[in-house]
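#onboarding

Welcome to the new folks! Below is a worked example of what a typical request in this channel looks like: someone posts a single protein sequence, and someone else replies with the predicted structure as tokens. Don't worry about understanding the tokens yet, we'll cover that in week two.

Example request:
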Amino acid sequence: MREDFLHNKYGRDSGMKVPEGYFQTLQEQIMESLPEQIVERKSIEISRWQRYKPYVYLAAMFCGIWLMMKVFHSVSQPMLPTSLDNPPAALVQMIDEEGEGDIQISYMDEPDYDLEEEIVMEYDSIEDFEKDFGYTLSPEYASVTIKEIKNHKV
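Example response:
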């Protein structure tokens, strides 16, 4: 209703008109008024590293993802107790590689006097000790008896 009132009062002609063919020639007029520019195509040489870089980065990303998954998997696995009755595969493989079947056990956590006391309590003679371990005492200790060691305890 309001539009009809305005159209009746002022009419439909706004007084502005575009000349005929203006939009057909507009682009040509603009291009003619611009200064001339020389377009040079520059070719950039790409080195071998620039060519392979995306693939190297992609491979590194997949390696990182694989490593993270491996770490998360190993952390999420429960730790099984190690038993000498059922040794882990790595221990069995080490025994097989040595071929002897003997494992050298280190008693670094146990003090020497505890080991000495255990041997003294278990063996009555040095000969039994030598026979069990395949060990020969040096001549200066050959005359020592286990009874002397037991009596020597402080």
